[in-house]
């Protein structure tokens, strides 16, 4: 059974997605939600706070809480697994494994991993869905030296993030974000037009052993955001989540 705060989040999100609530509409107060759902104010507050943190709602002090531009938002500086992000929003996560094979590294791929051209690399392509709608195409290469059983995994049941973190824990990551026009194949997977921009995140991850993975992550620009929160009051070393 889902926690009560998750049920409140889901109810609010369902109203937004169905069009019953639109950007700028005011959401019920903590007291109103507590009465409607027969929960404590603390439970209602948690539901509202998480929706604000996720960018679904916006809070104006002394005025109330309102529906914001509610495209899902991924963390920019915290590296999280897509399934965790989706479930944290109270939505349903699913995926489809498009390919899972071994390739020979070309010049560019060899440079990413600092290996010789022709070195074998594992390759997977997985589309991740939120409530049945594609929100990320993950095109990933993995160094077999550090994850020799990678291709034996059932990635319909777990994500590459979770598996790689269990066999080669993350110590460093490089990433870059850019807006691009997708190829026809990427557009088809994401269910967008080929002339519609998408967000591409390129990410290389390291463990103590060496370079483990290089991933290209494509998101539909019309229904996805990437953002983050910076806290300069204390050192953030070691605080980011360790998934890819």
From TrEMBL:
PROSITE patterns assigned: HTH_GNTR (PS50949)
Protein's UniProt keywords contain Magnesium: no
A GO molecular-function annotation: DNA binding
InterPro entries: Bact_HTH_transcr_reg, Chorismate_lyase_/UTRA_dom_sf, His_ut_repres, Tscrpt_reg_HTH_GntR, UTRA, WH-like_DNA-bd_sf, WH_DNA-bd_sf
Keyword line: DNA-binding, Transcription, Transcription regulation
GO biological process, one term: negative regulation of DNA-templated transcription
Keyword Hydrolase: no
Domain HTH gntR-type as annotated: residue spans: 2-70
Top-rank taxon, per record: Bacteria
A UniProt-annotated Pfam family: GntR
Name by which UniProt lists this protein: Histidine utilization repressor
């Amino acid at each position: 059974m889902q926690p009560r705060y998750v049920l409140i989040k889901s109810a609010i999100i369902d109203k937004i997605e169905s069009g019953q609530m639109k950007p700028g509409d005011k959401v019920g107060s903590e007291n109103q939600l507590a009465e409607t759902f027969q929960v404590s104010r603390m439970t209602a507050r948690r539901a509202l706070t998480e929706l604000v943190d996720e960018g679904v709602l916006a809070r104006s002090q002394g005025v109330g809480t309102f529906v914001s531009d509610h495209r899902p938002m991924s963390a920019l500086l915290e590296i999280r697994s897509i399934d965790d992000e989706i479930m944290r929003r109270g939505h349903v996560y699913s995926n489809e494994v498009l390919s899972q094979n071994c390739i020979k590294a070309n010049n560019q791929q060899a440079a990413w991993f600092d290996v010789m051209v022709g070195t074998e690399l594992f390759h997977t392509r997985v589309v991740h869905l939120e409530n049945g709608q594609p929100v990320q195409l993950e095109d990933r290469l993995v160094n077999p030296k550090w994850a020799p059983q990678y291709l034996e995994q059932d990635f319909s049941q777990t994500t590459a993030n979770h598996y790689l973190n269990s066999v080669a824990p993350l110590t460093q990551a490089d990433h870059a974000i850019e807006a691009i026009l997708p190829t026809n194949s990427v557009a088809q997977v994401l269910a967008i037009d080929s002339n519609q921009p998408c967000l591409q995140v390129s990410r290389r991850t390291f463990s103590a052993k060496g370079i483990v993975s290089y991933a290209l992550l494509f998101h539909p620009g019309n229904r996805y955001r990437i953002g983050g929160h910076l806290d300069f009051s204390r050192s953030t070393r070691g605080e980011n989540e360790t998934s890819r």
